[in-house]
Amino acid sequence: MRRTPLLSWTPDAIVFDCDGTLMDTERHWQDARELTLRDHGLRARPGFAERAKGVHYTQCGRLMADEAGRPDLGAALTDALLEHFRALVAADPVTMPGAAELVAHAAAFAPLAVASNCPADVVETCLSTAGLLAYFDHIVVPDSAVRPKPAPDVYLTAVRLCGAKPAHSLAVEDSACGVQAAVRAGLRVLGVGPRPEPVVAATTDLWVDRLDDPDVTAWATHRESRALAH
Fold it and tell me: pTM for the full model?
């Protein structure tokens, strides 16, 4: 097992991102962005996909409009983006490798929450279809009082609802935007997916390619066994 403090620690709560972390939906956002731009005859600047990753969909709609030189279309692009995304997710809801297993193990030793920039109904539908919704005590998404990532609000709210403190809690994230939110909230961070820029990876406690990473699996199953033994 890797020699990292994260893998010798038991968090009081674990907060998962949804898109790209639990559910294989980041590709749906990418497709939805492309369909939305195509529908309106627009193009974004090179590198837009990376800049948009993890960003709240309302901000993404405005970003598409600004980058295409049509800021007046922000509201229309936002509505079209969400409509395309809902249709794509409904047609193909798939979990990320190792997500279901890690959630099942983790639920045995810590309260779980989801902190997402997606609308609540989309998150709940995805997790329900995947058979994961029942594992989570709380689903936190932006609203009038909770700012979207990269603000720390969704993580601070999720940890509070779980009855834990940020410094004693773990965030599981796949995007720079989400990592920034979790770090700002004071959580430890397990990053997953294609390795980001070094400056982002350096702010996490551990970065793995997939949630079924052998060391992460061993860590979770060991803590599950200890919890069940007591």
Answer: 0.89
